[in-house]
Structures are given as structure tokens and as C-alpha cells.
């Protein structure tokens, strides 16, 4: 089995973030789920700036779990920014939304999402989504190394 990835959750709802952290731990994720509140904080985290400079405490993520509806810089805007950042082309991007509107789903994929997950209304259903996420992205999938660690030779 591949090493567990570092997952960065970008979620503005503190209650949703805490519930997701709890469900990921319950499902067996051994690495902590790192959380930031919006796209601005996500950019700082990814760039290792300000309070996120210590990569021991804030390791580079392999997977971004992005809520699409956030203040300041929303999920789609963050994904648009990521498309301009070649150092982050290796990241797996999973959109997370309470909306099942096809236009939003299409837009998320156009902006680089590798997957689109619907936030269900109940904790039981969210637990099912978290387990499905872990079974595929963590337990079955193998991830590339960050670009800066690849050898071009």
C-alpha cells in the first residue's frame, strides 16, 4: 500500500471541518487532516508562507479537498489560481459542495477538479462519503511526488 497522503481541507464552516476531521480519523486516516478556512489561507499554506512556513507542522499536501462556497477566494477561484501554478500540478483536487447543480459540477471539472463530491445533509451519509473517499484516494490510489522532487533526467 502507498504511504498515506497529506490532505488539506479548505472549508469555511468550522462545524463541517470539525465533523470531517472526526469522520476521517474514525475511518482510519492516520495522518491529520489539515484545515484552512478559505482560498486565501489555502494559497498561503500551499506556498509555505506566513504561519504555514514550518513544513513539519504544515506538510505539503497531496490532496486538496475544496469547499466551493467560501468567502474571500472561493473554491472555483482557488482552482483557477492553481491552474497558473506549475509547482502544484501534481495535486489531486476534490471539489466538495452542497450543490448538485450540473453547471457548478461542469465548472469544477473545467477548473481542474479530479472529483466532485456532494456534501450530504446527514452525518451518516457524510460518513459514507468519507469512507468512499478514503477507500479510493488513500487506500487504492497511488499519488505522484510533488514536482520539485521529480527528476527530469
Structural class: alpha/beta
Q: Report the span from N to C terminus.
A: 27 Å
User: Which value, in Å, is the CA radius of gyration?
Assistant: 15 Å
N-to-C SSE string, H for helix and E for strand? EHEHEHEHEH
Q: Provide a count of the helices.
A: 5
Overall structural domain count? 1
Q: CATH class, please?
A: Alpha Beta
- The number of strands is 5
CATH topology grouping: Rossmann fold
Q: Considering the protein shown, what is the CATH homologous superfamily? A: Response regulator
Show unreliable segments. Answer: 149-153
Averaged pLDDT, please? 89
What's the CATH architecture? 3-Layer(aba) Sandwich
The proportion of residues in beta strands is 5-15%
Q: Based on CA inertia axes, which overall geometry fits?
A: globular
Looking across the biggest beta sheet, what order are the strands in? 2-1-3-4-5
Outline the biggest β-sheet.
5 strands, parallel
* Share of helical residues: 25-40%
Amino acid at each position: 500500500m502507498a504511504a498515506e497522503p497529506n490532505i488539506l481541507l479548505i472549508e469555511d464552516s468550522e462545524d463541517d471541518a470539525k465533523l470531517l476531521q472526526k469522520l476521517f480519523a474514525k475511518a482510519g486516516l492516520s495522518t491529520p487532516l489539515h484545515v484552512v478556512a478559505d482560498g486565501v489561507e489555502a494559497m498561503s499554506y500551499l506556498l509555505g508562507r506566513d504561519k504555514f512556513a514550518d513544513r513539519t507542522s504544515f506538510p505539503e499536501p497531496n490532496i486538496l479537498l475544496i469547499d466551493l462556497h467560501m468567502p474571500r477566494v472561493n473554491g472555483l477561484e482557488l482552482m483557477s489560481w492553481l491552474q497558473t501554478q506549475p509547482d502544484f500540478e501534481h495535486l489531486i483536487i476534490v471539489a466538495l459542495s452542497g450543490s448538485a447543480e450540473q453547471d457548478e459540477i461542469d465548472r469544477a471539472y473545467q477548473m481542474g477538479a479530479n472529483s466532485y463530491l456532494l456534501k450530504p445533509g446527514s452525518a451518516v451519509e457524510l460518513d459514507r462519503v468519507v469512507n468512499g473517499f478514503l477507500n479510493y484516494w488513500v487506500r487504492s490510489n497511488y499519488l505522484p511526488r510533488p514536482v520539485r522532487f521529480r527528476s527530469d533526467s
